[in-house]
Inverse folding.
RNA sequence: GGGCGCUUAGCUCAGUUGGCUAGAGCGUCUCGUUUACACCGAGAAUGUCGGGGGUUCAAGUCCCUCAGCGCCCACCA
């Protein structure tokens, strides 16, 4: 056993070394783990960080949560697989690299570099970023299997992407369609609805007529698009306009050819907004496009992909920017006296979250995933149905295939989101990503995982939305579509963890992809965590400059402290704030554990470590029994809490025990105890189990301490169970009659005898620490003995160091607290009586309820059972209180 | 407009299907400390659980309502 550990724990000395030890040991790879049960496979797919940059604190939080769960499950003796990986993050990465290139002076990277060269640059960047990310994940102590490292754009994952695309294509769920989509002029690509950000903006609302003869004025914030109008929509019941419905007017507003404007009725039109009439521009508004479909209108696109007016807009306008065109058109309206009103309003504009420019709705042919179309061979179900089923009744109505979401309030939000879901536009015109596996030869289309033979075939240049590949993550990482052992063993994955902000993007898509492709849910449980905010509650963001680098925190406080600081005081689905002071606290705790270990290990050398089973029960004092009991309860509740994913609660409890019970109380007592052998044995046993309990939270310090007395690794030890403690506690109770008060009385008698104190009526007894006082208060039986034993006894909460002083000069002992203050019998009796009345009342109520046939017949079985159980509990409580009342009477 | 969340000690937050005297960390104050740890110890103070109403033997917890803060979705033509 190594001695003379440094006074404070210095994480940087051990962390990298320990991580390498774990890696070498094979503990991260479930194939190398020995499991008691062959079938106990447990798997988690790591949410792959984007290769757009480095990890931030949010990732650190995820890694902490994930790794606690992973280590806990591994210590349950399961074959645990945590698959690490990264996401190529299509648009995000290309946008980022292009930005950098522009900064370097390459003004138009796509044109100047070409597809091949630009992709090379993006690849270089992403590889660099990947490297950084991986090293950061390792720094966090994440116990993932690096031999299975995956990347959404690598060969295996691309294979999965193609496989699914082809399947969906053949099922008619992926189709090309001409529709109005979200176009980013800056990015020269489509965006899906989820990639939009809404920004509030002040703008002018113009009210005007197309011509003097046109009977209806319309309001718009985008006059320039009106050059492509083909209809005016009014509410069907609007008296002002009813007479015009169905009529077509021809107007000349300066566009290439005069516009034929048909007046149509649509219930969506709000008669109170503006003039109550809406100019319909099918080419440049999704809603107007839908009206076009319903009413069979024409479509005139007046804006091109470059964001400028095209020739349809008319000679005067062709080539103008949106702004210029707007100005020109408004001037024209004014000159023609057609403009009726100009007012300033605020409204939301959609912007591209990656490129940052305002989205231009344009009509285009793109690839879509049909979410409302029946899937062949799925009993008429649609993808939407599959997405809903998995979280409600279970996939295909199979309850064992129902995804449990914590906290469950997100289910409603998720379902609501699905209801509003439109077909998913999956094609992007950027180059970084999975190229669509479709080839054209004139009008012929070929879609397969392998390219067609023949030179004529041209591959579709578009790439896929990044979420398409992310959606396959739970099974693409396991080697699918190959029939791998991993896939058989580890899918569906056991558990998934994510922030609520990507619930819809990611969780929904994983469910879609997995249920559709595999007929299986992607994971059994989802734990949703909140967003990490800064001290003042703001989101961490680059533009605010409030970002904190997790690596800096690790350097300063150590990984264990960071992990603990991130997960303490959090509740599932709720946001939490991060500030450095928190880490000071957790660092101190880590150091506390280090020092407890140091003390115990250094004292261990005097007598060889003993196991609990070798201790004779009669050797135990009440304090020993007390700490063992506490330890037993701690083991039980930590297990329970971790099973419920209450990481914060579990760590709180562990902290309380470690610091308050063990360090400040029991360990201090042990210093003054004669029977050192028992104390050191207990301390050593408790320490060993405590290290195990803490391990998932603070893997490094616990592993380091463990290595001081053990050659095996802590990471693969079994998580403690309460049995070993309950045995000795039971035995000890049987052998001799334990109680704290008895010990106390004996001690006082001894002191009296030793120091020849005359039989005083009152005596002060000093108890070590508050824990025992609470224990005494809660032990009803003891009070009886207390009363029969000594007339008046005072008990003071006090620390062990005062104890030493007191025992040394016992003559100075004075009376402090009268017994009545410890337990105020009058107050107690009143309280207990009140409680008894409450319980009796309640039991009466329950009895009535249960004897009511209406209730037992009609109420759900579970409710009746619950009420019965409640009654039982209540009756038990009544009994308890009655005994209690007797005892204090 | 639709939905969700939050409001508990000076600060940051826990509080499981209603049930013992509402908790923790940090901070504050007092005292202490040569012998595991000042990244320490012993204590103390601080709460109309956002306001109002209701259900119940019992409400921080459930229902209604009002107020403030925050988020998401849709839309604002």
């Amino acid at each position: 056993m190594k001695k003379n550990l440094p006074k404070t724990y210095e994480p940087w000395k051990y962390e990298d070394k320990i991580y390498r030890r774990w890696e070498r040991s094979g503990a991260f790879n479930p194939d190398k783990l020995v499991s008691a049960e062959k079938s106990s496979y447990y798997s988690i797919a790591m949410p792959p960080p984007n290769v757009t940059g480095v990890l931030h604190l949010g990732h650190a939080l995820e890694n902490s949560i994930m790794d606690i769960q992973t280590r806990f499950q591994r210590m349950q003796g399961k074959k645990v697989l945590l698959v690490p990986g990264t996401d190529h993050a299509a648009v995000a990465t290309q946008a980022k690299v292009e930005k950098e290139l522009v900064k370097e002076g390459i003004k138009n990277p796509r044109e100047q570099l070409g597809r091949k060269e630009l992709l090379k640059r993006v690849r270089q960047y992403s590889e660099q970023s990947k490297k950084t990310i991986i090293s950061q994940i390792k720094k966090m102590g994440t116990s993932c299997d690096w031999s299975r490292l995956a990347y959404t754009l690598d060969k295996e994952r691309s294979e999965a992407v193609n496989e699914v695309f082809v399947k969906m294509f053949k099922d008619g769920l992926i189709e090309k369609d001409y529709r109005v989509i979200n176009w980013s002029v800056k990015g020269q690509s489509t965006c899906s609805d989820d990639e939009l950000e809404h920004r509030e903006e002040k703008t002018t609302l113009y009210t005007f007529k197309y011509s003097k003869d046109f009977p209806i004025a319309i309001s718009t914030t985008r006059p320039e698009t009106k050059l492509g109008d083909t209809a005016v929509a009014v509410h069907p019941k609007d008296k002002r306009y009813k007479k015009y419905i169905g009529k077509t007017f021809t107007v000349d507003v300066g566009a290439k050819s005069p516009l034929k404007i048909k007046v149509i009725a649509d219930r969506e039109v709000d008669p109170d907004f503006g003039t109550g009439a809406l100019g319909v521009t099918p080419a440049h508004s999704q809603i107007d496009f839908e009206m076009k479909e319903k009413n069979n209108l024409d479509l005139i696109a007046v804006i091109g992909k470059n964001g400028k007016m095209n020739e349809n807009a008319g000679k005067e306008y062709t080539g103008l920017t949106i702004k210029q065109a707007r100005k020109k058109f408004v001037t024209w309206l004014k000159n023609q006296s057609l403009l009726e009103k100009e007012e300033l309003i605020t409204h939301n504009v959609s912007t591209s979250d990656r490129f940052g420019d305002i989205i231009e709705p344009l009509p285009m042919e793109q690839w879509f995933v049909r979410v409302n179309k029946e899937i062949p061979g799925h009993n008429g179900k649609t993808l939407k149905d599959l997405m809903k089923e998995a979280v409600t009744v279970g996939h295909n109505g199979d309850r064992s295939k129902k995804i449990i979401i914590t906290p469950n309030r997100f289910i409603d939000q998720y379902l609501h989101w699905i209801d509003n879901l439109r077909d998913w536009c999956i094609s992007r015109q950027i180059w970084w990503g999975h190229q669509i596996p479709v080839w054209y030869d004139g009008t012929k289309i070929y879609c397969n995982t392998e390219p067609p033979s023949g030179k004529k075939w041209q591959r579709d240049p578009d790439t896929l939305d990044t979420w398409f590949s992310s959606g396959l993550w739970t099974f693409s990482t396991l080697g699918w579509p190959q029939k791998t052992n991993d896939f058989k063993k580890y899918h569906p994955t056991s558990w998934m963890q994510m922030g609520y902000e990507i619930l819809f993007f990611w969780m929904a898509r994983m469910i879609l992809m997995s249920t559709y492709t595999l007929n299986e849910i992607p994971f059994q449980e989802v734990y949703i965590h909140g967003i990490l905010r800064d001290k003042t509650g703001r989101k961490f963001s680059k533009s605010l400059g409030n970002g904190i680098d997790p690596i800096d925190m690790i350097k300063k406080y150590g990984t264990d402290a960071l992990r603990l600081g991130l997960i303490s005081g959090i509740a599932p689905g709720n946001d939490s704030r991060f500030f450095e002071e928190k880490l000071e606290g957790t660092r101190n705790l880590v150091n506390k554990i280090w020092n407890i270990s140091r003390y115990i290990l250094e004292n261990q050398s005097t007598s060889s470590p003993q196991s609990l089973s070798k201790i004779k029960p009669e050797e135990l004092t009440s304090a020993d029994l007390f700490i063992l009991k506490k330890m037993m309860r701690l083991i039980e509740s930590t297990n329970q809490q971790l099973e419920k994913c209450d990481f914060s609660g579990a760590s709180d409890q562990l902290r309380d025990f470690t610091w308050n019970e063990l360090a400040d109380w029991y360990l201090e007592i042990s210093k003054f105890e004669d029977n050192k052998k028992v104390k050191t044995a207990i301390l050593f046993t408790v320490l060993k189990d405590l290290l195990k309990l803490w391990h998932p939270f603070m893997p490094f310090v616990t592993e380091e301490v463990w290595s001081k007395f053990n050659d095996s690794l802590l990471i693969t030890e079994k998580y403690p169970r309460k049995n070993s403690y309950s045995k000795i506690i039971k035995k000890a109770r049987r052998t001799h009659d334990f109680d704290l008060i008895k010990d106390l009385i004996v001690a006082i008698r001894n002191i009296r005898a030793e120091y020849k104190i005359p039989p005083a009526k009152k005596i002060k007894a000093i108890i070590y620490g508050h824990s025992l006082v609470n224990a005494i208060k809660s032990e009803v039986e003891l009070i009886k003995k207390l009363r029969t034993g000594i007339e008046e006894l005072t008990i003071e909460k006090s620390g062990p160091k005062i104890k030493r002083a007191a025992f040394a000069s016992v003559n100075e002992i004075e009376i402090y607290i009268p017994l009545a203050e410890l337990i105020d019998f009058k107050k107690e009796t009143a309280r207990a009586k009140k409680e008894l009345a409450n319980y009796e009342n309640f039991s009466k109520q329950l009895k009535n309820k249960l004897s009511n046939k209406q209730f037992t017949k009609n109420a759900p079985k579970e409710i009746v059972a619950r009420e019965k159980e409640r009654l039982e509990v209540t009756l038990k409580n009544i009994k308890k209180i009655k005994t209690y009342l007797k005892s204090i009477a």
Remarks:
- The radius of gyration of chain A is 36 Å.
- Residues 109-139 of chain A form the longest helix (31 residues).
- Confidence is low (pLDDT under 50) at residues 736-742, 745-827 of chain A.
